[in-house]
Amino acid sequence: MLRLNNINKVYGMGDTEFYALKNIDVHVKEGDFVAIMGPSGSGKSTLMNILGCLDKPTSGEYFIGEHEVSQLSDDALASIRNQYLGFIFQNYNLLPTLTAVENVELPLIYRGLSRSERRERAVEALTKVGLQERLYHRPSELSGGQQQRVAIARAIAGNPTVLLADEPTGNLDSRSELEILAIFQDLNRQGMTILIVTHDEVVAEHCRRIIHVKDGEIMTNKLIQEELRKD
Ligand code: ADP
Ligand code: ADP
């Protein structure tokens, strides 16, 4: 599904050249559920930005399905993002003046769906995350966990192939964190491929695989045995 071959990301030039990522090889299979962990400054955001086609590597190959995307133009990358990827952020990034259902509908405008199709998809996505009773609430009327569920609904409404989440539970209390995790696990069981950057061991232990990054390199990439996985 996603394959990084010998990816390097270099910042600066000449004497100040700095490798934010070094010889990264990652293969994410369809249906995988991956946690990316590592200390601050280790390269997690850089890696996620490349995986999310928000940034380009300095060298190496990146395949999304059959497409080699590492050197595509910004427009072509935007189209790949739109077609394959859903994003979830730590701060939800919801528009405060729009209701939950309007927030979820918004990105669907760029998919050429009619008004009624957009509404139908948005309600379906919000129902999947358990917010069918909160369609017309604005973000300020929702808890942090509920706002993140709206953001997940927004990310899945376009039927992406892969969900990329950067510290999705970083601002949440433990109870909301577990609710969000349960939603990710549910989506993963339904076949969604998910990558999460997290500092949280609890979150990571619910995934299928943990990749540890340090100083721009992959330290470990290990499968969590099913019997140890916290389902
Ligand atoms: P993490 O997400 O793990 O905290 P980052 O990917 O944000 O790490 O950063 C990895 C390293 O690359 C850090 O040392 C950071 O300072 C550096 N870095 C990130 N972005 C840039 C940039 N645009 N220019 C220069 N250095 C950068
Ligand atoms: P995180 O919360 O993931 O650790 P950071 O605070 O390290 O994120 O970085 C936030 C953003 O700022 C990153 O996406 C990165 O591109 C940029 N950045 C980080 N370090 C530098 C740097 N030394 N020079 C320029 N930009 C940087």
Automatic annotation (TrEMBL):
The keyword Transport applies. Keywords: ATP-binding, Nucleotide-binding, Transport. One of its GO terms (molecular function) is ATP hydrolysis activity. Residues 2-231 form the ABC transporter domain. The keyword ATP-binding applies. PROSITE patterns: ABC_TRANSPORTER_1, ABC_TRANSPORTER_2. GO terms for cellular component: membrane protein complex; plasma membrane. SUPFAM superfamilies: P-loop containing nucleoside triphosphate hydrolases (SSF52540). Pfam families: ABC_tran. Belongs to the ABC transporter superfamily. This is Putative ABC transport system ATP-binding protein. It comes from Tepidibacillus fermentans. The lineage of its organism: Bacteria, Bacillati, Bacillota, Bacilli, Bacillales.
